[in-house]
Amino acid sequence: MSSPAATTPDDPYLWLEDVTGDEALSWVKERNAESLDVLTGSERFAELRDGLRAVLDADDRIPYVRRRGELLYNFWQDAEHPRGLWRRTTLESYRGGDPDWELLLDVDALASAEDENWVWAGAGVRYPDYSRALVQLSRGGADATVVREFDLDAKEWITDGFTLPEAKSRIGWIDEDTVFVGTDLGPGSQTTSGYPRVMRRWRRGQDVADAEVVFTADETDVSAFAAHDHTPGYERDFVGRSPDFHTTEEFLLRGDGTQVRIDVPPDADTDVEREWLLVRTRSPWSVDGVEHPAGALLCFDFEAFLAGDRTARVLFEPTPSRSLSYHAWTKNHLVLAVLTDVVTRLEVLTPAQDWARRELPAGPDLGSVDLMGVDPDNGDEYFLDTDGYTRPSTFLRGELGESSDPEPEVLRTAPARFDATGLEVRQFFATSDDGTTIPYFVVGRVADVPGPTLMTGYGGFEIALTPGYSGVIGRGWLARGGTYVVANIRGGGEYGPTWHTSALGEHRHRAYEDFAAVARDLVARGITTASQLAIHGGSNGGLLMGVMLTRYPQLFGAIVVMVPLFDMRRFHLLLAGASWMAEYGDPDDPTAWGWISQYSPYQNLSADASYPPVLVTTSTRDDRVHPGHARKAVARLREQGHAVEYYENTEGGHGGAADNAQRAFQWALVFEFCWRQVG
């Protein structure tokens, strides 16, 4: 049966969905030339581009590290190595300030030798010997990667090792000669969202198609998964599926191939560590007659739970102002990252002391402190990064004690990338249409008169926008006299899962009403005016920008729409779009289309409306959010006679840029456009 959305005849720009079609790329080339001619010719653009590139390529940036065994690993990009270097060193050398880096892989040299535009996409290092890695490389920054096995001792590729051609694969080590893998093996191997449907146990020397199938998801699921827990004494295998973006069904895979379902609510998050099962609820859950709210963290004995015991210990319970952002294990402790009105603090729980609780050193006021790495197999070491909107990062290392924690050592402190003299960070709360209080941060100088302001938001997928230092925003906007605003609207994770679910599906309008409420509140407080207020957002935040354009154009002086969803009638038919129907709804369902159609930007563009100037950016290599969304939006805006600029990077994937030069160029376009319109 044909999809109603697929057969709708009223879209004259479907041809722009042909990502690499000659006609579509010719259109892209023309639009790029027109907009770059307008935006890149000024002295200010060159200053912005070069200044941002200097920030991104600075030699005195913090080289963040992750421990793998005895060594610390780092991936580094700079002007000389735009594609990057994968390297490692010892803790002793790192402490010295000028580490003796051991080079593992030069991605620039590899790209040159193979005549490919390789972009680093990560590596999985094998436990416990740490002598091999499964390296993932992307062409141009796409989500799809090639996989190659790398010898970390010889620093060379394993020619007959585990290798996969380009696909959206899942792969992870089981032991030295075995991995779990899911990849594109032709019809039936992928879900409708384009992710692995079939997980296999792949042994060295086998053809991947001959590997043992350990789990198969439904074709309409988002993805299947399989993972090996290598914790000594607790080695286990897990398999399962994600029916949609927010639900999971997980099984313990026994040695005889039988599967034991972990019987928790499908929308809950689970974590098995040694003898413990942790469950973070995303909706209320009644356990042995006790109702636990959404956002709670519960602890069970894992084996007892599988046998039917539901004795639960509450490790975290949310309040209206506090939510659990994430947790992480060390060997003897559990660390909780807790948001209190969007400010992060860390707490340490110790199972051996009946889950005694204490705080780790806090970050700055209205700032963040984030775990950057732990090593639960080997000890209680942790790495932290603390920063704030005007406070550069400090990178620390510590070790958790039995009942108290020694002061962590400062490993690196990043220098300031912009002059923050006179800048203040303030938090305000706006009132949305339904009376809900919406927090937002304002960074800038306190002035008697309104000034140029750049505002952003996201509001989706339970992602929280927490305070953080950005040399790019600082140098491109704040240091030039602008004010920067971050709106913590519903749909995100700032107040836990209920903050997210309150803007799902038919309630999506609440996220947009929240953002508009913050815009009005900024004007009411005298911080800015509508004509001086520019906004930007990407991906789901790009959809947010599209809704602001079509529903609230009078509130803004300029809008920057980046790698956006825009055509919500067809989003589920394009690339990974089917996986997001749990967030937005199914456009083929008449009831769901009834509410989606009210805000879908593409369908609501009007020739009769008065829109502020618009800049739209995307990437040809974005294989997550289809570039057709951005292309068609611009084509329709042009057809209707509205002012719109467009830039499509031929690389970059969903991030929009593949290296620092491209990032600097793209952000310079954004700032130049905004300064022209609201400065």
Describe the structure.
It is a single chain. This protein is of the alpha+beta class. The chain is built from 15 helices and 39 strands. The strands form 9 sheets. Strands 32-33-35-34-36-37-38-39 form an 8-stranded mixed beta sheet, sandwiched between helices. Strands 5, 6, 7, 8 and 9 form a 5-stranded antiparallel beta sheet that branches. Helix 3 crosses helix 15 (660-678). The radius of gyration is 25 Å and the shape is globular. The protein starts with a helix and ends with a helix. 48% of the residues are buried. The model is unreliable at 1-7 (pLDDT under 50).
Task: List key phrases describing it.
15 helices, serine protease, Prolyl oligopeptidase family serine peptidase, AB_hydrolase_fold, single chain, Prolyl_oligopep/macrocyclase, alpha+beta, Peptidase_S9A
Q: Rg from C-alpha positions?
A: 25 Å
First-last Cα distance: 52 Å
User: Which of globular, elongated, flat, extended, rod-shaped describes the shape?
Assistant: globular
Judged by helices, strands and strand pairing, the structural class is: alpha+beta
- How many β strands by DSSP? 39
Q: Which whole number gives the mean pLDDT?
A: 96
> Which ranges are low-confidence, i.e. pLDDT below 50, for 5 or more consecutive residues?
1-7
Helical coverage, percent range: 10-25%
| Portion in strands | 25-35%
**With helices defined by DSSP (H or I, 4 residues minimum), what is the helix count?**
15
Report the sheet with the most strands, covering strand number, pairing sense and barrel closure: 8 strands, mixed
Strand arrangement within the widest β-sheet reads 32-33-35-34-36-37-38-39
Pfam family, one: Peptidase_S9
Domain Peptidase S9 prolyl oligopeptidase catalytic: 478-677
Protein name: Prolyl oligopeptidase family serine peptidase
Domain Peptidase S9A N-terminal: 10-397
